[in-house]
Amino acid sequence: MPNATTTTTTSQRSSKSEIRTAEIYRVAANLIQEKGYDATSMNDIAKKLKLTKAGLYYYINGKRELLYSITKFGMQQLEDQVLTPCRAIEDPEDRLKQMIERHTLMILEIGGSISILTDEIQSLTPANRKRIVMLKRGYMELVRETLQELRAQKKMKQLNINITAMNIFAVILGVARWYSPKKGWTSKKVSREVSKFVMGGILK
User: What does pTM read for this prediction?
Assistant: First the structure.
């Protein structure tokens, strides 16, 4: 049976590995966003990370697998940080507000490029593309269900639920394209402003 010291050491190693892997995803996502998927090589990514190509392959198996890992990582963060806590919120207005704020905050914290790459699924294998589509579907279903509850409570304007759900996703994802910390806005301020903007367009 492992002792406490062994368990702690193993946990610390695992944590460091996860942090390093997340860093690789962020750097690779930035490069792919800048240069395009086809134009970004494994050598480019390794050089940016100050790793040898062999060192990079310790963490990932190839570029296509890397793209899948990045998109899966982004969607898993969405599940953990947004969907799971928001499913527990009973009031639909508060739930939608929290979804918008949490999703925006998540994008700013993990890096916008990772979120943007969730739209690059055409470069994935059919099997992996299907997995990412299923993860996205869970997000959109919760948004639509929440909007339907708001409509039932007569709080929602006369808007098409499917179009509104897509617009919510587009507005939040758009933050990843224009946000810069150099503007002096905190991520919390941005997430709250985005929430006010979206909720103002939906609620009566």
Answer: 0.76
